[in-house]
C-alpha cells in the first residue's frame, strides 16, 4: 500500500460490500462437510511429496483435494491459492492439542482434519489461551500436550520464553510471510487479526475517526462515549505494541488522556462492539472480526470498521500454533500445524471466524480490506508482544486496571 | 462445645474417637494439600519482589476493596436472608410454601450468569432501558461498580443465610417464646432474647459461606467492573504472571483465615435443641402486603432478570456456532460428577462434622475450619494447584474425573460439613447413649440411632454440594478430561465465542436440574417439625 487515498477508496469499496456473505457461507457448510467425511479418506492417502505446489485438479464434487478450480469444503466459494491438505503429509497417531481458540470457532476444522485420516485422533482441550499457558507451565515436563493453538502471539511468545517450544520445520514456516512467524521458528501464525476502531454509523462517518491513534485523547467527539476492554489480551497486546513503538512515556500519556476523556470499560471486545452497535457508546477499540460477528447476527446494525494508519492502533496480530517440547511425536505435531496452513484451513478461518488468512492467495471475507491494503506499523516484531507484564504494570500505574 | 456434659465415661473410652480423629485429620490434610503448590510457587517470587508487590498502593487498595465487598455482601445477605426466613417459617405469610421455594431458587443461578444478565438488562442501553425508552427514560442508574457487585452477589448468595436460618427457626422450640411472653416481653424482646440467640450460629454459618464465596468469586467483580482481589489475580494469570498471581492468592488465603476466626467468635456457644415444637404463628396483620412485596421483589429481581435474558438468548440466531449443538451427554456428565462430588463430600464430611459437633476436640475444630480454606480459594487457583499435584504425584488420575471430583470436594466440602454439623448438634446425646446401655456397640448405636436422625441434614448437605458443583466453572475447565463437557463448560464455550443463542438451552437445563436439587434441600431440613 503506497498511497493513503488509494487505501481509503479501496476500503470504502469493501465496506460497501454486502455484509451477509459471511452468514450465508457459514450456513452452507453443514451439508458439504458431511460429503467430505466420506470421501476424505481417499484424498488423504495420496500425497506427501508436492510441497508448495499450487493446484491439484479436481477428483470429484466437494472433496478436500479440490484446489485451484475447486471449491472450499467449508462453503460456497472458489479456492484459488494455497496448498491443499491432500498435498500434505498424512497424519497418523494421537495428538493432544491444547486449544486457546474456542471450540465453537475451530472445533469443526479440527474434526475435519481428524476425519480425513483413518489412523489419526485429536484429543482437543479447549480453554482460554492464558489458562492453557499457565496449565502447560504448571504441568512441566509431565504435560500431555503435543501442540498449542493460540488466539494471539503473546501466548505463543510466553511459551517460547519459558523454553517450552521446539523449532518448526522450515517448509512450514515458509508458508507464511516472515513477519507472521517467530524469527527463531518457534511458532507460526495461522490467521490474522487487525486492530480496528468500531464506530457507530448513526453518529460518525468514517472520516470523523482520526487515522492517528494519538489523536484520540484530544478528540472531543469521543468524550464519554468511547469504550475499551483493558483486561482483554488483544487490548493488552495493542498497548504493548504502543510501548514498543512509542515508548513508555507516550503510552502513559495516551492512557491518561483516554481516561480523562471518560473512556468506558468492558470485559471483552465483543461487548465493546455490541455496545457500539447498540449506541451505548459511539466508538471503541476492538479486533476486526468482532464487528463482523456483530454484523453476522444483525446485518443492519449501525456499526462499521475504521483503521488508524501505521501505528499501534493498527497492529496486525496473529493467531498461531506451536509444537511443545513435551510432544510425543514432534513430526506428527508439526504436520498438524502445517494442516492449519492448508488452503482449506485458511479458507475456513476467512469464512467462519472472519479472520485474515495468512497464506498468500486466500482472501478474507466480509466488509474487510485485503491484507495488503492494511496499514500496520512498520518494524514491529510480534514476538515482542509477549511482554504483557510491563503493560499490566503500566495499566495499573495509570489506574486503568 | 456445650454438649460434653452428656458424655458418659463409657463413651469417652470408645475406640471411635481415635479412628474418627484420624479420619477427620486425613480429610483436612487432603483438602489443604493443594495449598502446598501455592506456597511453593509464591516462594519462587523472591522476597524483595514479594514485599514490593504486597506493599504496592494498588495491592492495598484491592485488599480494602475486597474487604468492603465481603462486608457489604455479607451484611446485605443477612438483612435479606433472616427476615425472609422469619417470614416463611414463623408468620402467617400467604403461600408460605411457594415463597420458601421461590426465594431459595436464586442459589441455582451461577452468579456470573446473574451478573451478565444484570449488565444486559440494566446496563446503559440495556434491555430494560430500551423497554422504558418510549416512556422517555433516557438513562438508568449506573449498574457497574461497587453497588452493582454487591447487588448481584447478594441476590445470588443470600439463600445460604436464608436456608441455614430457616432450618434453625424450624427447630426453635416456641414454648420458649411463649414463656418469654408470659414474662411480659413483647414480640420484639422475645425475638431478641429467645429467637436471636437460637438462630445466631446458623446465621453465622450461612454468612460465612456468603463471605467466602464473595471472596473467591471473580466472574461477578469482573463483569461488574469492580477491582476486587480476584480480578487482580485474574489479570495477572492472563498476563502469564503466575508467580504474582499465586502470591496474591496467598494473601487471599490470609484474609480467609481472618474471616474464619471472626466467624468462630461470632457464632459463639451453640446449643443442642431437641427438636422444636412450633405451633405458634405470628400474625402479620397490616405487614402482610409489605412482606409479600419483599418476597416477590427479591424473587423477581433475582430470577426474572436472568430468565428473561436467557429467553431472549433463545431467540438469538446470530451465531450458527458449528459443532455447538447441545448434547444430552453434557447434562449427564454434569449430573454424574456432581452426584459423585456430593457423595464423596458427604462421606468425607461425616467424621469432620461429627467430631466438630460432638467432641471437645482441637482436631475436630481445626479440621472443620480447614475445610473452609479450599472454598475461599478461587477456582482457577485451586485448579492450577491440582494440575500441579496431578502431574507430579497423581499422574494416573490427572485429567480424569477422579481428580475433577476431588477438586469439587476440596471446594465445596464445607457446605456438607456445615449442614451435617448442625444436624449432629440437634441430636439429643441421650438417645445414642440409651442404645449403648441396651448393648449396642458405639458403631451400632451410631448407625441405628444417630445416622437416621442426621439423615435429613446429610441429604441436605449433599444436595447443596451437588447444586454448587453443577455451577462450578474455572476448576472444571482446567481439570476435566479432554473432550469431557459439562453444562457449564458448554455454556462457557458458547458464551465466550459470542454464540449466546447456543448458551441458552444448557443454561435453562442447568437451572432446571439445580432447581430440583433445591427442592430436595427444602424438603429435608426441618424434619423435626411436621
Automatic annotation (TrEMBL), chain A:
UniProt keyword Signal, yes or no: yes
Protein name per its UniProtKB record: Iron ABC transporter substrate-binding protein
Alphabetized InterPro entries for the sequence: SBP (IPR006059), TAT_signal (IPR006311)
Record keywords, A-Z: Signal
Region entry Disordered, spans: 33-86
Biased composition (Gly residues): 59-68
UniProt biased composition (Low complexity): 33-58
A Pfam short name: SBP_bac_8
Gene3D superfamilies, sorted: Periplasmic binding protein-like II
PANTHER family tied to this protein: SLL0237 PROTEIN, THIAMINE-BINDING PERIPLASMIC PROTEIN-RELATED
From TrEMBL, chain B:
UniProt cross-references to InterPro entries, sorted A to Z: MetI-like, MetI-like_sf
Family annotation (Pfam families): BPD_transp_1
Keyword Transport appears in the UniProt entry: yes
GO CC entries: plasma membrane
Subcellular locations according to the entry: Cell inner membrane; Cell membrane
SUPFAM superfamilies referenced in this protein's UniProt entry, alphabetically: MetI-like
Membrane topology, as annotated: Multi-pass membrane protein
GO BP annotations listed: transmembrane transport
Domain ABC transmembrane type-1, first and last residues per copy: 63-261, 331-521
Membrane-traversing stretches: 20-43, 63-86, 98-123, 143-163, 202-224, 244-262, 291-315, 335-357, 369-390, 396-413, 449-470, 499-522
Keywords: Cell inner membrane, Cell membrane, Membrane, Transmembrane, Transmembrane helix, Transport
UniProt similarity note: Belongs to the binding-protein-dependent transport system permease family.
Protein name: Iron ABC transporter permease
Native species: Salinigranum rubrum
Amino acid at each position: 500500500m503506497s498511497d493513503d487515498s488509494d487505501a481509503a477508496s479501496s476500503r470504502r469499496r469493501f465496506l460497501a460490500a454486502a455484509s451477509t456473505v459471511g452468514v450465508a457461507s457459514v450456513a452452507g457448510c453443514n451439508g458439504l462437510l458431511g460429503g467430505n467425511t466420506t470421501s476424505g479418506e481417499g484424498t488423504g492417502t495420496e500425497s506427501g511429496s508436492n510441497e508448495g505446489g499450487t493446484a491439484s485438479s479436481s477428483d470429484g464434487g466437494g472433496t478436500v483435494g479440490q484446489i485451484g478450480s475447486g471449491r472450499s469444503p467449508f462453503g460456497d466459494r472458489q479456492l484459488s491459492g494455497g496448498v491443499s491438505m491432500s498435498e500434505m503429509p498424512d497424519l497418523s497417531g494421537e495428538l493432544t492439542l491444547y486449544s486457546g481458540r474456542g471450540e465453537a470457532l475451530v472445533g469443526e476444522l479440527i474434526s475435519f482434519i481428524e476425519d480425513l485420516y483413518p489412523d489419526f485422533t485429536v484429543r482437543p482441550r479447549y480453554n482460554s489461551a492464558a489458562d492453557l499457558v499457565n496449565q502447560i507451565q504448571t504441568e512441566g515436563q509431565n504435560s500431555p500436550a503435543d501442540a498449542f493453538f493460540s488466539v494471539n502471539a503473546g501466548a505463543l511468545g510466553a511459551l517460547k520464553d519459558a523454553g517450552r517450544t521446539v523449532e518448526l520445520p522450515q517448509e512450514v514456516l515458509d508458508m507464511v510471510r516472515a513477519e507472521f512467524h517467530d524469527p527463531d521458528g518457534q511458532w507460526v501464525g495461522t490467521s490474522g487479526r487487525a486492530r480496528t476502531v468500531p464506530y457507530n454509523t448513526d453518529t460518525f462517518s468514517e472520516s470523523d475517526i482520526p487515522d492517528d491513534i494519538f489523536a484520540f485523547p484530544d478528540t472531543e467527539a469521543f468524550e464519554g462515549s468511547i469504550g475499551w476492554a483493558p483486561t482483554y489480551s488483544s487490548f493488552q497486546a495493542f498497548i504493548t505494541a504502543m510501548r514498543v513503538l512509542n515508548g513508555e512515556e507516550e503510552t502513559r500519556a495516551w492512557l491518561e488522556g483516554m481516561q480523562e476523556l471518560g473512556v468506558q470499560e468492558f470485559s471483552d471486545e465483543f461487548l465493546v462492539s455490541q455496545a457500539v452497535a447498540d449506541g451505548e457508546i459511539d466508538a471503541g477499540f476492538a479486533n476486526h472480526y468482532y464487528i463482523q460477528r456483530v454484523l453476522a447476527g444483525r446485518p443492519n446494525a449501525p456499526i462499521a470498521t475504521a483503521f488508524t494508519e501505521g501505528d499501534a492502533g493498527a497492529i496486525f496480530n496473529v493467531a498461531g500454533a506451536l509444537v511443545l517440547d513435551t510432544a510425543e511425536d514432534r513430526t506428527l505435531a508439526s504436520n498438524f500445524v502445517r494442516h492449519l496452513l492448508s488452503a482449506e484451513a485458511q479458507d475456513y478461518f476467512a469464512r467462519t471466524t472472519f479472520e485474515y488468512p495468512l497464506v498468500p492467495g486466500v482472501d478474507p471475507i466480509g466488509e474487510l480490506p485485503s491484507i495488503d491494503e492494511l496499514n500496520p506499523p512498520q518494524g514491529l516484531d510480534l514476538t515482542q508482544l509477549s511482554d504483557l507484564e510491563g503493560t499490566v504494570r503500566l495499566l495499573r500505574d495509570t489506574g486503568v486496571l | 462445645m456445650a454438649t460434653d456434659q452428656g458424655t458418659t465415661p463409657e463413651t469417652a473410652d470408645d475406640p471411635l474417637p481415635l479412628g474418627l480423629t484420624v479420619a477427620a485429620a486425613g480429610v483436612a490434610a487432603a483438602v489443604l494439600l493443594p495449598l502446598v503448590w501455592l506456597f511453593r510457587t509464591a516462594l519462587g517470587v523472591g522476597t524483595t519482589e514479594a514485599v514490593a508487590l504486597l506493599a504496592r498502593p494498588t495491592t492495598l487498595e484491592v485488599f480494602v476493596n475486597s474487604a468492603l465487598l465481603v462486608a457489604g455482601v455479607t451484611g446485605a445477605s443477612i438483612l435479606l436472608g433472616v427476615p425472609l426466613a422469619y417470614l416463611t417459617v414463623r408468620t402467617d405469610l400467604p403461600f408460605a410454601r411457594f415463597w420458601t421455594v421461590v426465594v431459595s431458587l436464586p442459589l441455582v443461578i451461577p452468579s456470573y450468569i446473574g451478573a451478565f444478565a444484570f449488565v444486559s438488562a440494566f446496563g446503559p442501553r440495556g434491555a430494560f432501558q430500551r423497554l422504558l425508552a418510549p416512556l422517555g427514560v433516557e438513562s438508568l442508574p449506573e449498574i457497574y461498580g461497587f453497588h452493582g457487585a454487591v447487588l448481584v452477589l447478594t441476590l445470588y448468595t443470600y439463600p445460604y443465610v436464608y436456608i441455614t436460618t430457616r432450618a434453625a427457626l424450624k427447630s426453635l422450640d416456641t414454648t420458649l417464646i411463649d414463656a418469654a411472653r408470659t414474662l411480659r416481653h413483647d414480640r420484639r424482646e422475645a425475638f431478641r432474647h429467645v429467637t436471636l440467640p437460637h438462630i445466631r450460629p446458623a446465621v453465622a454459618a450461612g454468612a460465612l459461606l456468603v463471605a467466602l464465596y464473595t471472596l473467591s468469586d471473580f466472574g461477578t467483580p469482573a463483569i461488574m467492573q469492580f477491582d476486587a482481589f480476584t480480578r487482580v489475580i485474574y489479570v495477572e494469570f492472563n498476563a502469564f504472571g503466575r508467580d504474582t498471581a499465586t502470591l496474591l492468592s496467598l494473601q487471599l488465603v490470609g484474609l480467609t483465615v481472618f474471616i474464619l476466626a471472626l466467624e468462630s467468635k461470632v457464632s459463639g456457644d451453640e446449643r443442642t435443641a431437641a427438636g422444636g415444637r412450633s405451633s405458634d404463628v405470628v400474625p402479620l396483620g397490616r405487614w402482610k402486603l409489605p412482606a409479600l412485596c419483599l418476597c416477590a421483589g427479591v424473587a423477581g429481581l433475582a430470577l426474572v432478570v436472568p430468565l428473561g435474558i436467557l429467553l431472549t438468548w433463545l431467540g438469538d440466531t446470530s451465531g450458527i456456532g458449528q459443532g455447538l449443538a447441545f448434547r444430552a451427554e453434557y447434562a449427564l456428565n454434569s449430573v454424574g460428577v456432581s452426584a459423585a462430588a456430593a457423595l464423596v463430600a458427604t462421606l468425607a464430611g461425616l467424621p469432620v462434622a461429627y467430631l466438630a459437633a460432638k467432641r471437645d476436640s482441637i482436631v475436630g475444630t481445626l479440621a472443620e475450619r480447614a475445610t473452609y480454606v479450599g472454598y475461599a480459594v478461587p477456582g482457577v487457583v485451586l485448579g492450577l494447584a491440582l494440575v500441579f499435584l496431578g502431574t507430579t504425584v497423581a499422574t494416573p488420575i490427572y485429567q480424569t474425573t477422579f481428580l475433577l471430583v476431588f477438586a469439587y470436594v476440596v471446594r465445596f466440602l464445607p457446605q456438607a460439613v456445615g449442614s451435617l454439623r448442625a444436624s449432629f448438634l440437634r441430636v439429643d446425646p441421650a438417645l445414642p447413649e440409651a442404645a449403648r446401655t441396651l448393648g449396642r456397640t458405639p458403631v451400632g448405636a451410631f448407625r441405628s440411632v444417630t445416622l437416621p436422625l442426621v439423615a435429613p441434614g446429610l441429604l441436605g448437605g449433599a444436595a447443596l454440594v451437588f447444586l454448587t458443583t453443577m455451577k462450578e466453572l474455572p476448576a472444571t475447565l482446567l481439570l476435566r478430561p479432554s473432550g469431557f463437557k459439562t453444562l457449564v463448560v458448554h455454556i462457557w464455550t458458547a458464551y465466550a465465542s459470542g454464540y449466546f443463542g447456543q448458551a441458552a438451552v444448557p443454561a435453562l437445563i442447568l437451572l432446571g436440574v439445580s432447581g430440583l436439587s433445591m427442592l430436595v434441600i427444602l424438603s429435608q431440613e426441618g424434619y423435626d417439625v411436621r
